[in-house]
Design goal:
Chain B: InterPro entries: 2-oxoacid:Fd_oxidoreductase, THDP-binding, TPP_enzyme_TPP-bd. Chain B: It holds the Pfam family TPP_enzyme_C. Chain B: It comes from Nocardioides panacisoli. Chain B: This is 2-oxoacid:ferredoxin oxidoreductase subunit beta. The complex is a heterodimer of chains A (658) and B (343). Chain A is an alpha/beta fold. Chain A is built from 21 helices and 23 strands. In chain A, strand 12, helix 12 and strand 13 form a beta-alpha-beta unit. In chain A, helix 7 runs antiparallel to helix 8, helix 9 packs across helix 10 and helix 11 runs parallel beside helix 12. The longest helix of chain A has 20 residues. Chain A is globular, with a radius of gyration of 28 Å. Chain B is an alpha/beta fold and 343 residues long. Chain B folds into two domains: 46 residues, no CATH class; 271 residues, Rossmann fold, CATH 3.40.50. Helices cover 29% and strands 17% of the residues of chain B. Chain B has ten helices and eleven strands. An eight-stranded mixed beta sheet of chain B has the order 2-1-3-4-6-5-10-7, with helices on both faces. Chain B has a two-stranded antiparallel sheet with strand order 8-9. In chain B, helix 3 crosses helix 4 and helix 5 packs antiparallel against helix 8. The longest helix of chain B has 16 residues. Classes of the chains: A alpha/beta (658), B alpha/beta (343). Chains A and B meet through helix 1, strand 9, helix 9, strand 11 and helix 11 of A and strand 1, strand 2, helix 2, helix 4 and helix 9 of B.
């Protein structure tokens, strides 16, 4: 036994597990993530998988990967380029090689490097044969070519599994090896495997054994001479858990139900990448949550609207294509002024697009994608854990202002994860449904008789502060009324075709949404020097890459300010002044410039777009270069980010300036 | 008109569609006037919708339910203006979607009597999907399908129930689509209560409405309704002096003959085969058009658990086992699983 291996300190590491869709890479990544979370590192993850359930085996399109960035300090992204690639077959090696920085470590399972699999991956010759040769494809990397599958099969042979089934545990062998390399705690994974395979003893034992064998292999083999240590991160004190965006969003809805006292009705139709919200909420019936899997997207929102009319909080969840189908019903909720949460977990578009990849190209659809003047508030979370608070905020707005609210998440937030400081419940807002219980208007007849006692109910008589109309639910005697999609007369709410009334109602619905801005806190601008002339503004999941890029620019000695929008409609009241106080405004987005367009239209500022639509999060190093160039232009100086820019030998995200 | 008790099926006593809806205090009587809103009714003179509205306004007090616990939901079309004229809760929604909205409402609120008012275009064309899924789920609601075999509000195009060869504004040389028979469709979707009645037969209409309201589950009532503007006289054969020759009034036990086979009608039969065969009577087009008299009355009335009762049951079951305040339970949920402390 080698007890004398060197232990090297690192402040952060980026690992990418890659293999065939059936190799269990997502599970492997999840487990490594949980181990790292329990260990106390800060972390961010990026799962990346094909849309096909079982893509053709061994092919490039069939490669599934999971990237984790973990550190001893707070980090913002899953990292641009991995330090370590674990490749379980030739396709996984080939698909990911271009993204590795020079000197990266590659751990490759040689078992599947057969002629057939090399052909499928497009390799003319086995790249592993040329190891050590100058100029070969792998020459710039530290490659550990190991028969992980063979070692796994050998380790678990006592359990009597078929060779194929035994080989399936190779992902746990790889996990064990990496867990050893980075000193991860093993107990959570052993406990997890015992739970997961409780009903299949042989498979449970094989997986646990493979996991331990991988660990032991690392410890005993001469191949690995160094073990690495990434110390726990110093984060604000509190209790943490690791959480994905979809889970946090679902929990946020549970919290909204608890804090409003309203039963929740989710009406939805399965769609990637939003379905996990349905799966999660369906487990929480004890909180008074009903989940309705409808016959289509339209019925999903229809049921949610019906439930809201009945006094529940209606919620519908989908992705971009589903929003297109729900548009008319969203308009009905605008017209009937009922609380409703519409969740759009954005994915690559248009049409079916890239179902499992991320994008931010539904902003203008959320903003304008309806007939008529149909304003809808938009709330966007900025990180996986932030989906919780964003969902509570969406509920606050929906209930307080009696309006549908668009909650714009995306595929990266949905499936990505990070440590999340669990909030204390008392710190969450209470949401008051304030149901109407009594007549609110004096009828003409009573007024004529001199009475000032309200004796009739006007469903469109508004709260003077919020402009919200009363929410009077069936079962409330004396408040019987009819609502619908036809234009309403101001106040009493009967059908009206009067031109002046329509003009008034269109403006009133718009004004109500604008009133929401009165309830928003001032926008936070981060500008450590206080002298920046360039502002970078973003929304949604670009928060991480923008923050990481700004840190790089500041570390290189340059000044840049950043701010991030949670509310896209209405925009914060102080945004115009903030935008106008900088010489240059850069707007990074995973679309062709949708927020840029809104800012230009609203504030007449020359918002400059930084746009990528690759189905992946923005890369911090590339964005840092773009920010650097703009800082150079604004200040009339030459900007060279040096080691903080694209030319980093190992492409790490920068630690914040302390 | 029978409101079958289904006792012969050996099923538990039929639960009423309105059993969880609060009733008016004993001794209180409601009137049709109380159920009429102050809005001016704006259908064309002579429209069959007036007769149905009158019948419904007169019938609703008989239910003995609190007015505020009754909700009418409609889609788009002439008939979908219906909710505005009733002084209950109501929603005039969007084209074809009323069954989905009613599904959410009926599931969220067990204490409401939920009605859907729709037409042949609304329910069978743009909203066909929602109609069949409501029937399959058996959500506790009553769907009044006004069938005038024409598009009225858009001014006279053929509808999915128009006969083949219909000459309309959009089919100047005749429509070529094979029509739906709403009763056959509802039986195919395993609807648990399927009936047909006529706008002009107040007594029959009211009896069918009463049975439909009493049924727990989705009740589909097709109402033949005359459009005097775009499809006048569509149902004259069964309304005129010789109506008796063209009508088959379905009652439990009534003898029916289809394609030479005769049997006693049983709306409670679980297998809908015979009920479906009856629904083809009066049809002349296609291989399933058997001709003969047009049947009206209750084709089918069987018991099946409703979606909304079962969904609420699951929630109630989950809630029965919990203790602690909602805030405490939320805290426990957020802190379940692997957590760690910093500082």
């Amino acid at each position: 036994m080698s007890q004398t291996k060197e232990v090297k300190q690192l402040d952060r590491v980026i690992i990418r597990f890659a293999g065939d869709s059936g190799d269990g890479m997502q599970l492997t990544g999840d487990r490594f993530t949980q181990e790292s979370a329990v260990f106390g590192n800060d972390l961010v993850t990026l799962p990346n998988f094909p849309a096909e359930i079982r893509a053709p085996q061994g092919t490039l399109p069939g490669v599934s990967s999971f990237q984790i960035h973990f550190a001893d300090h707070d980090i913002l992204t899953a990292g641009d380029r991995p330090d370590v690639l674990v490749a379980m077959n030739p396709a996984a090696l080939r698909a990911n090689l271009a993204e590795l920085p020079k000197g990266a470590t590659i751990i490759v399972d040689t078992h599947d490097f057969t002629k057939r699999n090399l052909d499928k991956a497009g390799y003319d010759a086995n790249p592993l044969d040329a190891l050590g040769e100058a100029g070969s494809a792998l020459a710039e990397f530290q490659v550990h070519a190991l028969d992980l599958t063979g070692m796994t099969v050998e380790a678990v042979k006592e359990f009597g599994l078929s060779r194929k089934d035994a080989g399936r545990a190779k992902n746990m062998f790889a996990l064990g090896l990496l867990s050893w390399m980075y000193g991860r705690p093993t107990e959570p994974t052993v406990a997890f495997l015992e739970r997961k395979f409780a009903k299949a003893a042989a498979i449970r034992d094989a997986n646990v054994t493979a996991f331990k064998a991988g660990w032991n292999f690392g410890e005993t083999t001469e191949t690995f001479v160094v073990q690495y240590e990434v110390k726990p991160a110093v984060l604000p004190s509190g209790t943490y858990r690791n959480i994905t965006g979809n889970l946090a969003l679902a929990y946020g809805l549970v919290a909204a139900g608890v804090r409003s006292g309203l039963p929740i009705m989710l009406g939805t139709y399965p769609i990637t990448p939003a379905s996990d919200i349905l799966h999660e909420l369906s487990k929480h019936k004890a909180f008074g949550i009903t989940t309705f899997q409808a016959e289509d997207e339209i019925a999903g929102i229809g049921a949610a609207i019906g439930a809201s009319f009945g006094g529940a909080l209606g919620v519908t969840s989908t992705s971009g294509p589903g929003i297109a189908l729900k548009s008319e019903a969203i308009g009905l909720a605008v017209m009937t002024e009922l609380p409703l949460i519409v969740i759009d977990v954005q994915r690559g578009g248009p049409s079916t697009g890239l179902p499992t990849k991320t994008e931010q190209a539904d902003l203008l659809q959320a903003m304008y994608g309806r007939n008529g003047e149909a304003p809808v508030p938009i709330v966007a979370p900025q990180s996986p854990g932030d989906c919780f608070a964003a969902a509570v905020e969406a509920a606050r707005i929906a209930v307080t202002y009696r309006t549908p609210v668009m909650l714009l998440s995306d595929g990266y937030l949905a499936n990505g994860s990070e440590p999340w400081q669990i909030p204390s419940i008392e710190d969450l807002p209470t949401i008051d449904p304030a149901f109407a219980t009594a007549p609110n208007h004096v009828s003409a007849k009573s007024a004529a008789e001199g009475s000032s006692e309200p004796d009739e109910f006007w469903p469109y008589l508004r709260d003077p502060e919020t402009l919200a109309r009363p929410w009077a639910v069936p079962g409330t005697a004396g408040l019987e009324h009819r609502i619908g999609g036809l234009e309403k007369a101001d106040g009493h709410g009967n059908i009206s075709y009067d031109p002046a009334n329509h003009d008034l109602m269109v403006r009133t619905r718009q004004a109500k949404i604008e009133r929401i801005a009165d309830s928003l806190p001032p926008l936070q601008v981060e500008d450590p020097s206080g002298e920046a002339r360039v502002l970078v503004i973003g929304w949604g999941s670009t928060y991480g890459p923008i923050g990481a890029a700004a840190r790089r620019v500041r570390r290189a000695g340059y000044k840049v300010a950043t701010t991030h929008l949670r509310h896209l409609n209405p925009l914060p009241k102080d945004l115009g002044d903030i935008l106008r106080s900088y010489d240059k405004v850069l707007v990074p987005e995973m679309n062709l410039g949708q927020l840029s367009k809104m800012l230009r239209a609203e504030y007449l500022v020359d918002a400059i777009g930084y746009n990528h639509v690759r189905g992946l999060p923005l890369k911090a190093a590339e964005l840092a270069e773009a920010i650097g160039n703009l800082v150079g232009e604004a200040e009339g100086i030459d900007v060279d980010l040096g080691e903080h820019g694209l030319n980093l030998p190992s492409d790490h995200e920068e630690a914040p300036t302390r | 008109m029978s409101t079958s008790t289904n006792a012969d099926l050996g099923l538990p006593t039929l639960r009423s569609g309105t059993e969880l809806v609060p009733a008016v205090e004993e001794g209180t009587t409601q009137t049709a006037k109380e159920f009429s809103s102050d809005q001016e009714v704006r259908w064309c003179p002579g429209c069959g919708d007036y007769a149905v509205l009158k019948a419904v306004q007169s019938f609703l007090p008989d239910l003995g339910l609190r007015r505020e616990n009754i909700v009418f939901v409609s889609g788009i079309g002439c008939s979908s203006r219906f909710p505005y004229y009733l002084d209950t809760f109501g929603m005039h929604s969007i084209h074809g979607r009323a069954p989905s909205i009613a599904t959410g409402l009926a599931t969220a609120r067990e204490d409401l009597s939920v009605w859907v008012v729709t037409g042949d275009g609304d329910a069978l064309s743009i909203g066909g999907n929602h109609l069949i899924h409501a029937l399959r789920r058996n959500v506790n609601m009553t769907i009044l399908l006004f069938n005038n075999r024409i598009y009225g509000l858009t001014k006279g195009q053929y509808s999915p129930t128009s006969e083949v060869g219909k000459i309309t504004k959009s089919t100047p040389v005749g429509s070529v689509d094979h029509p739906f028979n709403p009763i056959s469709l509802a039986l195919g979707a395993e609807g648990t209560f399927v009936a047909r009645t006529i706008d002009s037969d107040r007594k029959h209409l009211t009896a069918v409405l009463a049975a439909a309201a009493a049924h727990r589950g989705t009740s589909l009532v097709e109402i033949y309704q005359n459009c005097p503007i775009f499809n006048d006289g569509a149902f004259d054969a069964i309304k005129g002096p010789e109506a008796a020759d063209h009508l088959l009034r379905l009652e439990p036990g009534v003898e029916v003959t289809v394609n030479g086979r005769t049997w006693a009608h049983d709306p409670t039969a679980v297998d809908p085969g015979d009920q479906f065969a009856i629904s083809r009577l009066g049809e002349t087009a296609g291989p399933l058009g058997h001709g003969g008299p047009i049947p009206i009355g209750i084709f089918r009335q069987v018991e099946r658990p409703t979606y909304d009762d079962l969904a609420r049951g699951q929630v109630a079951h989950a809630q029965a086992g919990v203790s602690g305040s909602p805030d405490d339970r939320l805290t426990a949920l957020l802190r379940a699983g692997d957590t760690w402390n910093v500082g």
